[in-house]
Amino acid sequence: MPVIHMQLQIRAPLEICFDAARSIDLHMVSASHTRERAIAGRTSGLIELGESVTWEAVHFGVKQRLTAVITEFERPYRFVDEMEAGAFKRFWHEHRFTPVEGGTLMEDTFDYDSPLGALGRLADRLFLKRYMYDFLLKRNRCIQETAERWAIEV
């Protein structure tokens, strides 16, 4: 059961960072390299508690779909999305925001189980955990850049 944890300091207010992280439109920008797009549920705007989104993307050369639902929501400090359907056996993804001097500390925890038992665990060690880390880092840097730009525009 791999867990990916990362932190990023953002020079923007808490509320702006929180909204950037739950923006469906910004997620599609950050994941454009996988041709990710929202195809069902909430397909644009800011996702809320109890809402789901179905993503379609190409990973490892294969078109895949994944549906996630927002299961916990404490604006503007924290929200959690969990997989309802998709390629993972399960995932739990927490987004946490803490005000700090000069902006916001964004913490991202992605806890998942790969499918296929021992074969999935081998894939985690060989490439999947690194792939997911890089995917999340790219997304978080996009959130950081966008939130900082939005903070200047306000």
UniProtKB/TrEMBL annotation:
Q: Give a single Pfam family match.
A: Polyketide_cyc
User: Which residue intervals define the domain Coenzyme Q-binding protein COQ10 START in the entry?
Assistant: 53-124
Entries under SUPFAM superfamilies matching the protein = Bet v1-like (SSF55961)
Record's InterPro entries?
Answer: COQ10_START, START-like_dom_sf
Q: What is this protein called?
A: SRPBCC family protein
Organism of origin: Paenibacillus xanthanilyticus
